[in-house]
């Protein structure tokens, strides 16, 4: 058995039956795909709730290539590269656009899967195409932006039919016609002519203030998605709960702040066993004291039930929860 406590940022003390680290395409060619196989990056959005009896594959591919064109920069990053380090590198080179996404934990390969986003920006905006290796057919292919089917914290890569796709690299395009995105309240203190460097520094500062460092307090970042609801439901909530933060979407729906819902429901600092709601950021669940998988699931269910009963809103996990043989869906 292989210890997994250091392989996922929530640091639940569990083991895996088999672990294979992939550092080259050649290593994929000899891989035998099994129905109990799971692909892992840096483990910052995955929580193992018990011993994993399947085959765990960890993406360690590395390499970055940058080419300039008349209108922008074409950037290729291997899937095993660290996302935040890529952002810092790009901003340092004068390649702007990803500054709002600074300090999001995880690997480059995980970015399109989750369509990571923060402060009004989603990574899909800059993804041109994604390279994948089919671990069943042993062929490599490339998916266009449209074929990735990006949506809010979602993509084609999250569909069960495509779990055998191993992302090997991501192609980005960052246009030279850059414009700052400063619409979120946390960025309101920045000047309208703030530089990308200033925005990145501010985002890093805000995230460090609000979010616990996984190296000190084990966590997997935002545990729940911000729910998106019809406008009629939004108007009902605004009437019942004045001051509720609402973000109008392009399709007319409304996005709510899950952290606000949890906080105002009186659930901040709630704990079950060793798992707890973080005292500064209600959207983050933490491993306070050697939490078990059962502690985490019980705490999450308690939060979902309370939010449902109080607001009539369903909270859906953003993290990927695994039991002994794979992803948990409820």
SSE inventory with pairings:
Elements: E1 2-3, E2 15-22, H1 25-29, E3 37-40, E4 46-48, E5 52-59, E6 64-68, E7 72-78, H2 83-92, H3 110-114, E8 117-118, E9 121-122, E10 127-134, E11 139-144, E12 165-175, H4 196-210, E13 219-222, E14 228-229, H5 231-240, E15 246-248, E16 254-256, H6 258-264, E17 271-272, E18 275-277, E19 284-287, H7 293-311, E20 320-322
Parallel strand pairs: 2-5, 3-5, 4-20
Antiparallel strand pairs: 1-2, 6-7, 7-12, 8-9, 10-11, 10-12, 13-19, 14-16, 15-16, 17-18, 18-19
What does it look like?
The protein has 330 residues and is of the alpha+beta class. The chain folds into three domains: 2-59, Uridine Diphospho-n-acetylenolpyruvylglucosamine Reductase, domain 2; 64-206, Uridine Diphospho-n-acetylenolpyruvylglucosamine Reductase, domain 3; 216-322, Uridine Diphospho-n-acetylenolpyruvylglucosamine Reductase, domain 1 (Alpha-Beta Complex), CATH 3.90.78.10. It contains seven helices and 20 strands. The protein has a five-stranded antiparallel beta sheet with strand order 6-7-12-10-11, with no helix packed on it. Strands 1-2-5-3 form a four-stranded mixed beta sheet. A four-stranded antiparallel beta sheet has the order 13-19-18-17. The mean pLDDT is 95.
């Amino acid at each position: 058995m292989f210890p997994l406590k250091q392989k996922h940022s929530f640091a639940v003390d569990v083991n895996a039956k088999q672990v294979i680290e992939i550092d080259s395409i050649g290593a994929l060619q000899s891989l035998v795909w099994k129905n109990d196989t799971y692909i892992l990056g840096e483990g910052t959005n995955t929580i193992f709730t018990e011993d994993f009896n399947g085959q765990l594959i960890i993406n360690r591919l590395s390499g970055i290539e940058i080419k300039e064109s008349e209108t922008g920069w074409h950037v290729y990053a291997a899937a095993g590269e660290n996302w935040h380090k890529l952002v810092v590198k790009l901003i340092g080179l004068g390649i702007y656009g990803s500054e709002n996404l600074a300090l999001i934990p995880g690997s480059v390969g995980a970015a399109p899967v989750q369509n990571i986003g923060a402060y009004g920006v989603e990574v899909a905006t800059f993804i041109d195409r994604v390279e994948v290796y089919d671990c069943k057919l042993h062929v490599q292919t490339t998916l266009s932006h449209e074929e990735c089917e990006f949506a809010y914290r979602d993509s084609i890569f999250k569909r069960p039919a495509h779990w055998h796709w191993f992302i090997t690299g991501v192609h980005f395009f960052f246009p030279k016609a850059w414009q700052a995105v400063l619409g979120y309240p946390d960025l309101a203190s920045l000047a309208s002519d703030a530089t990308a460097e200033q925005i990145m520094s501010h985002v890093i500062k805000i995230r460090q203030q609000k979010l616990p460092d996984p190296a000190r307090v084990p966590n997997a970042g935002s545990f729940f998605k911000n729910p998106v609801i019809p406008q009629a439901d939004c108007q009902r909530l605004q009437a019942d709960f004045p001051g509720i933060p609402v973000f109008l979407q392009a399709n007319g729906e409304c996005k709510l702040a899950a952290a606000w819902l949890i906080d105002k429901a009186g659930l901040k600092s709630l704990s079950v066993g060793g798992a707890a709601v973080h005292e500064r950021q209600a959207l983050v669940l933490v491993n306070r004291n050697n939490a078990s998988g059962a502690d985490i699931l019980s705490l999450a269910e308690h939060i979902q039930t309370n939010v449902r009963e109080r607001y009539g809103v369903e909270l859906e996990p953003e993290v990927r929860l695994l039991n002994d043989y794979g992803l948990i869906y409820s």
